[in-house]
Every structure is written in structure tokens, then in C-alpha cells.
């Protein structure tokens, strides 16, 4: 069969997205013919009719003409709670080859029927990523863990589960690009991982190992994991006991540290012990921060923040740094720039997000940061503060953002806490219209919501300094008076974005066009 006949799959995809009533087809059994399907999607029409029955070297030619909503990743739920009929198996196998990723969390599936149907074959022949959060499924892993699988996520709740995983994975470990082992059982972390020779062979034979430790890791296990040459990603809770000896994670590239209670000295000690010359991403956040409810009166000092950031300075290759906490930081010295001093030494940083801390930065501080971080693309300092946190008033005036018109040449995302002065603050501030070279595309500016008059003035200023940007993620709810007038953050954001877009169109009509932003 000529491969051009496979275009029937594409045609069928188009047909499934067409309303039958649009062509007068009210019966489910009727399908529109090729011409009518092509006419229903104009971008599909010309290449389909011109090349379908002539010559087709690559199906990508037609696939690229399909609308984006037909090509994007789709999510759905599959539940086999009883043995499927023969017709149902045929229907399932027809679409099984399109499935690339599976996340399995339920135990209500009749896995015995599936295993009987596929005793030595793969259930999903095109599966590349499998994520299991069920101990029940571990004994059926062989019907999933086969080439071309490249990513495997397994949650381990017992030593028995580890044995099954090892037996299944050992035969194809070299083909896996990432093996994520999420461990919740203390006995597994304490005894099994350091002592199991079989598990060690599996770990060392992989290209990339991602280990998630849901409980406190004992010092002995930490030392053992540091010796693994394939451990590239490590997610760990702050342990109760930290080894006195250094922890050389020579292959580690991504480190995530979770903390349940605020122990800055313990977090700082853990960072001091870890030696990771190849570390490029560091994430520190509170476990369960998204589930925080109600106001929090716990304040932390700048000295505690400095204790944590100081050891970070040794990770010279660090490119991405995240630090999230719902606690309020007070008394940042020297406008907060001194607190950031350990990070300023990291010249390779290009992505940084520190939440819930107002660094009170000014124009001169931004210039210093621009000199320190020439590769910065994503910069968020203190924005994204939840409304339930009673943060101090922002200290950075919106006008100081004009410095970004000439600095941070690679910046694409900017997030800060700002305030709007009430008197003619925006006159003669920033570059002449149409001359800003800023590449920023997204702005997250907490504290920007005010009266409608301020929206228009701020929008005019932002459209000049950031000609390619749009506002996102408003956090402040505004004053009671603003809410009474219907001036909500979403409304403010939408109105400012519309104003900025309109100003850009007017400038284009006048022949004033800003330099194009990079792709």
C-alpha cells in the first residue's frame, strides 16, 4: 500500500470535527464525502485536493495545514471496568496507536482482562510516557514498559513493588531516557535502596534518573544517592538529620527542596553540604503551599533569607532559581539588593522567580541587576502575592520600569510589585514612542490595579516601554471603592491590554513601529 493512502487517518480526524447537520447528514452512519470535508476547513482544502491523489512524499505536508485545535494534545479518561466485547477491543486497538502519554491513578480497571488479551504484547504500541500512581498496577507493568517507552514514572509504596519494577525495567533500562521513582515507604529509603544490588544496576544503566523522596531521607541513603552517576533530578523533603560529610551529587542537574515547616538553618545546612557542579535548576518551596487557607501572620527576616541564598552562590552553572514561601519578608536592607547579593554572582542565571517578598528595588538596582544577569529571560521578584497575605505597600514606582527599555536585552517575562504615583508621573519618562527595544512579552505587575484614570495612563506608559507585552496574572483586588465600581483585577487587566493594543495600532498607522521582538 502506498503511504499516501494513510491520509485517510487525517481525513477521519477532520470528519470527527464536522457537524453532520451542516451538510444535511442527520444519521450517524452517514459521512460527508472528501470534497465537503475539505471545504469545511479552508486551510485543508487546497493541499488536500491538489496533492491527495497525485504525489505525497510526507504526511506532515497535510498535517501542518490542519487547525491547531486538531493537532494539540488531547486528554481523556479510559476505564475498563469489565471485559470488553470483541467489537470494543477492535475499536480500542484502532485508536491505541495514537496514545503517547498515560497517567493512571485508579484501581477500578479490569487489568486481568487486559493482561489476558495482551499476554506478551504491548497494550499501547506508541506509548512514550507512562505515569503510575497505583500499587495495583505494578504487576501489570510488562504490558506498558516496552519500546518506544522513554519515560516511566512509578510510585513505590512497598518493597514488593520495588521488586516488580526492577524485574520489569531491567530488560529495557537502557532505552529509558527518564526513570522517575517516587518513594513513600520509609523502609525502602532506609534499607532497600542502599542495599539492593539489582536496583543499583538498574539505576546505573539509565541515561537519566529522577528520584522523588516523599519522606525524610536518612543520612546513609543521602550519601549513597550522591554516588549515583545517573541521578540527574532529585526531589527531596528537608531531612531531619543531615550528614556531616559533603554530599557530592556529581551528575545532578535539577534539585527540588520541599519544606513542611520553616527551618532556614536546616535548609541552609543542606545546601552547604550538597556539591553539584552541574546543577542548572534549583527549586525551594513549601510543601502544600497551594492549599494554604486563611491569613498567615508568620514573618521571616532578611537574615534568614540571606542564610538560604548564601550557599546558592557556589552553584556557578545555575540558570534557573525558584524560591516560594507564603510567609512575609520584612526589613530587607538597602532596598533588597543586598539580600540578592549571592544570586548576583551567578552570571549564567536566565530564569528567576522569588515570590512573596517585596525587594523594594529602584532604578539604580535594576541597572545593577542588568549588569549582573546579561542572559536573563524570566525575572519575577515579589509578584504573585496572594490577596490573603497582608504585604507592606510596594516601594517600586511604575515609572522606574522605564529602565527596562534599554537594559535586559533578552528579557521576555517581567514580574514585580509596583505602585502608581498620583501626580503626572509619566510625563517625559521612557524612550520616545516607537524606539523601545524591549523584548518583554508578558508582564505580571502586582499592585497595578487602581482607578480607571490610572489604567489609561499606565497602559500608555507600558505600551511605550514594552511595545510587545501584555499584562497577565493580576493579584491585587484593589480597594473597596474600586470593587464597588466594578473595577476588578481582571477588568483592569483586560482594559489595559485593549488600550495598549489600540495604542500600538495607532502608532503603526502613524508610521511609528517598534523593533520586532525576537521569536
From TrEMBL:
Region described as Disordered: 473-492
Top-level taxon in the UniProt lineage: Eukaryota
Record-given protein name: F-box domain-containing protein
Organism per entry: Phanerochaete sordida
Amino acid at each position: 500500500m502506498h503511504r499516501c493512502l494513510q491520509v485517510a487517518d487525517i481525513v477521519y480526524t477532520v470528519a470527527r470535527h464536522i457537524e453532520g447537520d451542516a451538510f444535511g447528514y442527520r444519521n450517524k452512519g452517514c459521512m460527508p464525502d472528501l470534497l465537503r470535508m475539505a471545504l469545511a476547513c479552508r486551510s485543508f482544502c487546497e493541499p488536500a485536493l491538489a496533492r491527495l491523489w497525485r504525489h505525497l512524499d510526507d504526511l506532515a505536508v497535510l498535517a501542518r495545514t490542519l487547525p491547531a485545535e486538531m493537532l494539540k494534545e488531547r486528554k481523556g479518561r479510559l476505564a475498563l471496568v469489565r471485559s470488553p466485547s470483541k467489537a470494543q477491543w477492535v475499536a480500542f486497538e484502532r485508536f491505541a496507536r495514537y496514545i503517547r502519554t498515560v497517567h493512571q491513578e485508579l484501581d477500578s480497571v479490569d487489568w486481568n482482562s487486559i493482561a489476558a488479551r495482551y499476554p506478551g504484547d504491548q497494550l499501547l504500541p506508541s506509548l512514550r510516557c507512562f505515569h503510575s500512581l497505583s500499587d495495583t498496577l505494578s504487576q501489570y507493568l510488562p504490558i506498558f514498559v516496552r519500546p518506544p517507552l522513554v519515560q516511566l514514572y512509578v510510585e513505590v509504596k512497598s518493597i514488593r513493588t520495588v521488586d516488580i519494577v526492577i524485574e520489569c525495567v531491567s530488560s529495557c533500562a537502557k532505552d529509558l531516557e527518564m526513570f522517575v521513582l517516587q518513594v513513600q515507604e520509609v523502609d525502602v529509603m532506609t534499607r532497600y535502596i542502599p542495599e539492593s544490588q539489582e536496583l543499583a544496576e538498574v539505576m546505573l544503566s539509565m541515561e537519566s534518573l529522577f528520584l522523588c523522596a516523599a519522606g525524610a531521607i536518612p543520612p546513609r541513603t543521602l550519601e549513597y544517592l550522591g554516588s549515583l552517576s545517573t541521578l540527574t533530578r532529585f526531589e527531596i523533603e528537608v531531612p531531619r538529620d543531615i550528614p556531616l560529610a559533603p554530599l557530592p551529587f556529581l551528575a545532578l542537574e535539577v534539585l527540588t527542596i520541599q519544606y513542611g515547616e520553616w527551618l532556614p538553618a536546616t535548609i541552609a545546612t543542606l545546601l552547604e553540604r550538597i556539591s553539584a557542579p552541574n546543577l542548572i535548576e534549583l527549586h525551594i518551596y513549601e510543601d502544600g503551599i497551594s492549599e494554604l487557607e486563611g491569613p498567615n501572620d508568620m514573618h521571616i527576616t532578611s537574615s534568614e533569607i540571606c542564610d538560604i541564598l548564601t550557599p546558592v552562590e557556589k552553584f556557578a552553572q545555575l540558570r534557573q532559581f525558584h524560591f516560594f514561601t507564603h510567609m512575609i519578608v520584612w526589613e530587607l536592607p538597602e532596598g533588597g539588593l543586598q539580600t540578592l547579593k549571592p544570586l548576583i554572582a551567578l552570571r549564567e542565571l536566565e530564569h528567576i522567580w522569588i515570590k512573596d517578598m517585596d525587594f523594594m528595588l529602584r532604578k539604580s538596582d535594576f541597572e545593577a541587576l542588568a549588569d549582573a544577569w546579561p542572559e536573563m529571560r524570566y525575572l519575577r521578584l515579589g509578584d504573585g502575592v496572594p490577596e490573603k497575605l497582608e504585604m507592606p505597600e510596594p516601594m517600586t514606582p511604575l515609572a522606574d520600569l522605564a529602565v527596562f527599555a534599554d537594559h535586559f536585552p533578552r528579557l521576555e517575562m517581567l514580574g514585580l510589585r509596583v505602585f502608581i504615583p498620583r501626580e503626572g508621573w509619566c510625563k517625559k519618562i521612557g524612550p520616545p514612542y516607537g524606539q523601545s527595544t524591549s523584548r518583554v512579552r508578558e508582564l505580571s505587575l502586582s499592585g497595578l490595579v487602581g482607578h480607571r484614570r490610572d489604567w489609561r495612563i499606565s497602559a500608555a506608559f507600558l505600551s511605550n516601554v514594552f511595545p510587545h507585552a501584555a499584562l497577565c496574572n493580576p493579584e491585587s483586588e484593589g480597594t473597596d471603592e474600586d470593587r464597588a465600581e466594578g473595577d476588578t483585577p481582571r477588568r483592569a487587566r483586560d482594559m489595559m491590554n485593549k488600550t495598549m493594543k489600540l495604542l500600538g495600532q495607532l502608532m503603526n498607522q502613524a508610521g511609528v513601529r517598534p523593533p520586532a521582538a525576537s521569536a
